[in-house]
Design a protein that fits this description.
InterPro entries: G_ENGA (IPR031166), GTP-bd (IPR006073), GTPase_Der (IPR016484), KH_dom-like (IPR032859), KH_dom-like_a/b (IPR015946), P-loop_NTPase (IPR027417), Small_GTP-bd (IPR005225). The structure is a single chain. The chain has 14 helices and 15 strands. By secondary structure, the chain is of the alpha/beta class. It folds into 3 domains: 4-161, P-loop containing nucleotide triphosphate hydrolases (Rossmann fold, 3-Layer(aba) Sandwich), CATH 3.40.50; 179-351, 3-Layer(aba) Sandwich (Rossmann fold); 358-446, K homology (KH) domain (GMP Synthetase, Chain A, domain 3, 2-Layer Sandwich), CATH 3.30.300.20. A 6-stranded mixed β-sheet has the order 2-3-1-4-5-6, sandwiched between helices. It has a 6-stranded mixed β-sheet with strand order 8-9-7-10-11-12, with helices on both faces. The protein is globular.
Length: 447
């Protein structure tokens, strides 16, 4: 699971600037998922080989008892509860305030791992200007400048080293290839828990006709026909503006972590509701995470033939970017269509971990070029020479040659289709990377 970092502090101390700095982009905010309100943003960050989730919270007033400030405080408290480490941001130039003392008092009571950051510290003398912040009783004060990027690397070293054990180069955490980790994702009340209970043959998970019953991602071991699975029932991702309980808002973190840690994601869609924008948002996140995916339209027995046609057309238009995924029409409650679903899950898992040899990839590439030459761009025509596999889950194919930056998107799709057909890559995203050789005459020509 990715570590979670929460940014906490009073208003206008630079939390959002730090959030943008940690995520390395201003549009890394996951704003389409449930509970991601304007005063709470989620983003992904990476430090070396460590990936993490950042939560930007609104201005924190622990003792707020009414109005919007009480709601913001409630959400911030939940963010702190979910986080592995809290970054408490203070303003180095404005100095310490009574509100800083209140926040520090709250954090000390929790005993949560906490790092005290003095933001806007560019050009200040550490000893003189920062000594007052030791009054907060949270240990060492780390000076940073979020706007200038100063002190960010040492900060992440300090915050993340204790959370993620360092691994020697070339070594990764062991994953049992014999176990398929399956995350069941979807909007609230689409029947995720009911489906898993049907698979297990018992009421193992709480299933109730009220959206948001599941509060956390729950892992259940399961075996079918000799194949071992880990079933992950995730809390529903609800459309923005439809979530009112603060605890439910933080099911988002666990859901995103569950999808990223899974080998295959099963996206469940409610046939009675049709394919919604939120279904497309969840599918987009699964695709962005590189997970293999299978689509299942639940409650298929509850709609008539006309509605079924509408759902199928909606799948083609709104889920067009998941054409590689298999679609099943099922009824979890009546146990209809569940057998073929297992076959597609196993197929997607195999495809995501497919090994592709360099000679076969290169042969396919050269045959594709012979069948259809890449389009010329100005004076340049891309020359594709050889290909090899660059990774698995999702499969990555690296193509080498000259002037490959001029390869068109249409030609990339053409190549992807040939590779998918040869290696039966059904149910998994496929990434194709191009690496152009350097022109040895470039330097001479510039002289």
């Amino acid at each position: 699971m990715k570590p979670v970092i929460a940014l906490v502090g009073r208003p206008n101390v630079g939390k959002s600037t730090l959030f943008n700095r940690l995520t390395k982009t201003r549009d890394a905010i996951v704003a389409d998922f449930a509970g991601l309100t304007r005063d709470r943003h989620y983003g992904n960050g990476k430090h070396g080989r460590i990936e993490f989730i950042v939560i930007d919270t609104g201005g924190f007033e622990p003792d707020a008892s009414s109005g919007i400030y009480m709601e913001m405080a409630k959400q911030t408290r939940q963010a702190v509860a979910e986080a592995d480490v809290v970054l408490f941001v203070v303003d180095a130039r404005a100095g310490i305030s009574a509100q800083d003392h209140e926040i520090a008092k709250y954090l000390r009571k929790l005993g949560k791992s906490c790092v005290l950051l003095a933001n806007k510290a560019e050009g200040l003398k550490e000893g003189a200007q920062l000594v007052e912040f030791f009054e907060l009783g949270l240990g060492e004060v780390v000076p940073i400048s979020a706007s200038h990027g100063q002190g960010i690397k040492p900060l992440l070293d300090l915050a993340l080293t204790a959370l993620v054990p360092e691994q020697p180069d070339g070594e990764f955490a062991e994953v049992d290839p014999a176990v398929i980790k399956l995350a069941v994702a979807g909007r609230p009340n689409v029947g995720k828990s009911t489906l898993i209970n049907t698979w297990l043959g018992e009421e193992r998970l709480v299933a109730f006709d009220m959206p948001g019953t599941t509060r956390d991602a729950i892992t259940v071991p399961f075996e079918r026909n000799g194949q071992k699975f880990e079933l992950i029932d995730t809390a529903g991702l609800r459309r923005k503006g439809r979530v009112f309980e603060a605890i439910e808002k933080f099911s988002v973190v666990k859901t995103l972590q569950a999808i990223e840690s899974a080998g295959v994601a099963l996206l469940l869609i409610d046939a009675t509701q049709g394919v919604t924008d939120q279904d497309a948002h969840i599918a987009g996140y699964i695709l962005e995470s590189g997970r293999a995916v299978v689509l299942a339209v639940n409650k298929w027995d509850a709609i008539d033939e006309y509605q079924r046609e509408l759902v199928k057309r909606s799948l083609e238009t709104r889920m067009g970017f998941l054409k590689f995924a298999t679609v099943h029409f099922i009824s979890a409650q009546k146990r209809q269509g569940l057998g073929p679903l297992w076959d597609s899950i196993a197929q997607a898992h195999r495809a995501a971990n497919r090994k592709m040899s360099t000679p076969v990839l290169t042969r396919l590439l050269l045959e594709a070029v012979q069948f259809q030459t890449p389009k010329k761009s100005g004076m340049y025509r891309p020359k594709l020479r050889y290909a090899h596999q660059g990774g698995m889950n999702p499969p990555i194919i690296v193509i080498h040659g000259n002037s490959l930056e001029h390869v068109t998107d249409a030609y990339k799709r053409f190549l992807e289709g040939r590779f998918r057909k040869e290696f039966d890559l059904v149910g998994t995203p496929l990434k194709i990377q191009f690496k152009s050789s350097e022109n040895p005459f470039t330097e001479k020509e510039s002289r």
